[in-house]
Amino acid sequence: MAEHPGTKPFTEASNTRAAADTPAVHTFDALIIGAGFSGLYQLHTLREQLGMRVRVLEQGGGIGGTWYWNRYPGARCDSESYYYCYSFDKRIEQEWTWSERYPGHAEIRQYLDFVARRLDLLRDVQLDTKVVGAQYDDDAGIWTVDTEGGERFRAPFLITAVGCLSTANVPAIPGLDRFAGQWYHTGQWPHEGVDFTGKRVGQIGTGSTGIQVAPVIAEQATHLTVFQRTANYSIPARNRPVTAQEIRLTRDNYEDIWRRARSGANGHPFTIADRSVHDVPADERQRIFEEAWERGGLRFRASFRDILVDKGANDITSDFLRAKIRAVVKDPEMAETLTPRDHGFATKRPPIDTGYFETFNRDNVRLVDLKAEPIVEITERGLRTTRREYPLDILVFATGFDALTGPLLKLNITGSGGRRLSDDWSAGPRTYLGLQTPGFPNLFTITGPGSPSVLCNMPIAIEQHVDWITACIGDMRAQGLTRIEAERDAADGWVRHVNDAANATLLPQASSSWYLGANVPGKPRVFMPYAGGFARYAGICDEVAGDGYRGFARS
C-alpha cells in the first residue's frame, strides 16, 4: 500500500488512560461504546455537527473495532475495498489508496487509523476501557457507565457502537481446560500471530472465518484436521492487487458509486439483474453463472433477482455451486461431505474464499464430518469423536460469534425503572428500527438487531444510522427536548415487520444460521437482521423522522 503523507502508525498504548490518573467520575454530552467504523464516525458527527463533548470508550488497545480483534491468518473483508470505506468525506477517498480488491485486516486498521488522524478523532477515544455496566437514572435523565478499571462516566445520551460480530462464541466442549496444547478463537487472535510450523492443527468450524483461515493453516502446518459441523457454499474471491486504472475510475465516479450503493438492497454499488432464473434458457443461464463465478465475490448473488425469494431458482443456483465443489475436490467422498445439502445458497451468510476447496486436495489435510462422528470431548492430547481420538498440538475455534445481541447484552444495560435489557430480550430482541428499545431512553444502537446490519455492506449501513442518530439528537437539542424513547406499540409493529420481511425470503429456512442465533446454545431462535433491503429501510427511517419521529416518545 502506498504511504500516506502526514500519517504515522497508531501505537496501541498511545491513547490509553489509567483509572488512577483520572478523576472517578467524568461527565460528557454523549458516550459512545466502541471505536470501530461506527464509533469513530459517530464521534465525528456529534462533535463537528452538534458541538457536543463526547467520549468514546474502547475495550481494545487500539481502534478498529471488529478488525482490532480479527487478525487470524487470511482475515479479510468480503466487500470490495472501493466501497468498504466511508463515503461521507470525498477528500478521504481521494487521498487513500487501497492495495487489494478485498482488503486484509491490517490494511483496514491502517485505513481507520488514517481517517482517525485525518479528522483528529483520537483525542476523544479512551482505549483499554472495558464497559461492565450501564444504568439509566430516570430522575436525572442521565446514563451512568461503569468500567472494569473503576472509572465512571455520565452523559444524557449513550450510543452503542459495539459491532454485530464482536462477541466470540467458544463452544462448551468438555475437556478444553485440560488440553495440553494451545487453543485460539479466530475472533480473539494473538496480535503476535501463531506459528503453525511443525504442528498438528485441528480447526472447528467452516463458516466464513473457517473458510478463510483453513488454506493458510494448511500451508504452514504439518497436518490440518478440519472438523466440519455444516458444509458451506463459497464463491472464489479472485483477490488481486488494485490497478491504477481502477483507482482512477473509483475517484472519477465517486458520487455515482455511492448513489448506486444507497439505492440498492444490500448497500453494494452494483445492480441485481432484472431477470429470473426460470426465464433464461439453460445454456444461457449456465453462461451467466460461469461468468459470475470467474468474476468472483458477492456479486454472484446479483446474477438473477429471484435467488433468495424463489426456492426453485435457489435450487438451480445451489446445484451449480455444488457441481463446482465436485469439480474442484478430487476425492468424491470428501467432495460430497463438503457439499451443502441442508440449506440453499445465500440463505446463510455466503462466504468468499481463496483456495478453500482446493485445500482438501492437499496430502496434509483431513476432513472430519461431525454429523457422522460428533465430538465427545477434548482430551489432553487432542480431540475425541465418537469414532476416534485425533492427536493435536493446536486447536483453532472458527466458531463465529454471538451475533447482534451478544455484544449488547455483555454491557449489562439497565434502563428505566431498573429494567434489564437481558430480561427484555430473553425471548429475542425487540427494537424499533433497530435503533432503540422501549424502556431504554436516550440509548441508541448502531446496526442493532432489527436493522439491515449484517445483510448489508456495513460502512454504508453504519453511516445511515449515525446520520439519523445525529439528526435526531440535533432536532431534540433545537427544540429543548431531553428524552427520547421508542414506544412499545411501535417496537411490536416493527418486530412483526422484520419477521414479515424475513419470511418473504428464503433466509429463515436455513435453520442452522447465525442470523437466527442457531450457533449459540440456548439463544432464542429469532431472525434478527432486517431483510427488507437497505434502501427501503433507509426510506422508512427518513419517513419516521419526517413525521415528527413517529413511534418515539419525546419530552
Output mean pLDDT: 92
- The beta-strand count equals 22
Count the domains: 2
Structural shape: globular
What portion of residues belong to β-strands?
Answer: 15-25%
CATH fold description of the largest domain: FAD/NAD(P)-binding domain
Helical percent range? Answer: 25-40%
Which consecutive residue ranges, at least 5 long each, have pLDDT under 50?
1-20
Radius of gyration: 23 Å
Total helical segments:
16
Please give the order of strands in the largest beta sheet.
1-7-6-5-19
Sheet having the most strands: 5 strands, mixed
Structural write-up:
- With about 550 residues, the chain is an alpha/beta fold.
- Helices cover about 30% and strands about 15% of the residues.
- Strand 5 and strand 6 form a beta hairpin.
- The chain is globular, with a radius of gyration of 23 Å.
- The N terminus is likely disordered.
Topology at a glance:
Layout: E1 25-27, E2 30-33, H1 37-50, E3 54-57, H2 66-69, H3 90-95, H4 105-118, E4 125-126, E5 131-137, E6 142-147, E7 152-155, E8 157-160, E9 182-185, E10 200-204, H5 208-220, E11 223-228, E12 235-236, H6 244-252, H7 254-262, H8 282-295, H9 311-328, H10 332-337, E13 352-353, H11 356-359, E14 365-369, E15 375-378, E16 382-385, E17 389-391, E18 394-397, H12 406-409, E19 413-414, H13 421-424, E20 443-445, H14 458-479, E21 484-486, H15 488-503, H16 534-546, E22 552-554
Parallel strand pairs: 1-7, 2-3, 2-8, 3-4, 5-19, 8-20, 9-18, 10-11, 10-18, 11-14, 12-13
Antiparallel strand pairs: 5-6, 6-7, 15-16, 16-17, 21-22
